[in-house]
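Re: export button greyed out
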Amino acid sequence: MYYPFSWLRSTARLFLYLQIFALIGWYLEDLLLAVCLGAVGLLLINYWHLFRLNRWLWHSRKMSPPTVRGVWEHIYEGIYYLQRRNRNKRKELGLLVKRFREGSEALPDAAVVVDAKAGIVWCNRLARLELGLKWPADAGRRLDNLIRHPQFIEYFHAGDYHFPIEVPSPTNPNKTFEYRIMPYGDDHLLLIVRNVTRLSQLEEMRKDFVANVSHELRTPLTVINGYLEILSADDETDPFLHKALKEMTSQTHRMQNLIEDLLVLSRIEASSERIYEKVVDMPTMLKQLQIEAQTLNREKGHTIEFHVDQQLKVFGIETELRSACSNLVFNAIHYTPAGGHIEVTWQRSVQGARFAVIDNGDGIAQDHLARITERFYRVDKARSRKTGGSGLGLSIVKHVLSHHNSQLEIASTVGEGCEFSFVLDSELIQEPQ
Ligand code: ADP
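Workaround output, generated via the alternate export path:
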């Protein structure tokens, strides 16, 4: 039976104990000696209990405490209660860890947890298999000492984990892995590694397929176009045939434009050219573009103004930048109703070198803006077809800019016009010597 601890009862018991000795002392006429003997006895009893407590805590296999009474009973009960509570907590935690481990082993991806000092805290079985980690031998070792691919090390140290990277596997160069790092808690990182070999092979196949098909279609189309031109030149063909030939020629031109744009897109996608190696003379390139724009503008009669900083040259890939700028300028000419005003600027800005094309055409509604750079996305299909556009122009611009670490900004108000612009980082500007 367990009684709650009472200081009063305990003090009363002590008092009674000492009183018995005091009575004996009074009877034997040596009160002090008797009380001292009682205190020494009390001390010995407590020492005995301390000894038992120590033996129970450190040497006994028994969980339940020895049976005692008084204050010591409360101490034993208290310790026993704490032990039981801790044991239950440990059991619960153990179960939780076990379930978490089972869950993480069931993950189809390799997972590694890394602490603030880049030391490995934990990894699952797939991480051991795919990344060649040893467990528990590699616990605490720096992850960047074990995965040595330069691209991974750069990604790991850059601290910008918004996008994953694709890198060949450290154990098998035929495999491609996608590494994604997610920061969590106090400076901890979770690395998830997915095998994307099949996906990247399919992506490569898709790119090759588009490039090959476009290339193969080019020759037959040139032949058809050649014959169509010869047949159209004959003045004596009957009017129906003449109309048919005209339409066929216009459609083959559209197909040729489409194929050229597909090839440009494939080339940019496959390009591994570095943007820091060659200087692009943008002022000269824009002068040529101005001449081409004026030729294209003959039917439309827009006023086109070019404001170009003649000193502003940048590092980049000339063919790609020309393609991006001409697409933006030609789009403004095509999609602005006749007699409009178009302004092209190439100037320094706070962030770098800024190219912008501003027109006062019909503008683009906000809900189209998010999708407008997708392949074959058109705001007004019938009108785009009339302009002979392939639907790939802004897609090409997007790819070129992403290759130059930039992006297309579009500002538009329906009925007032659009502004298409991009900024090349100041790092890319070639400062005049
Ligand atoms: P397309 O070859 O059809 O011109 P783009 O990718 O170049 O394809 O453009 C996509 C769509 O964006 C066009 O069909 C057109 O509707 C719209 N667009 C592009 N530039 C402008 C502009 N300056 N003003 C209005 N609409 C534009």
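The chain has four domains: 6-100, 107-195, 198-270, 275-433. The button fix ships in the next patch.
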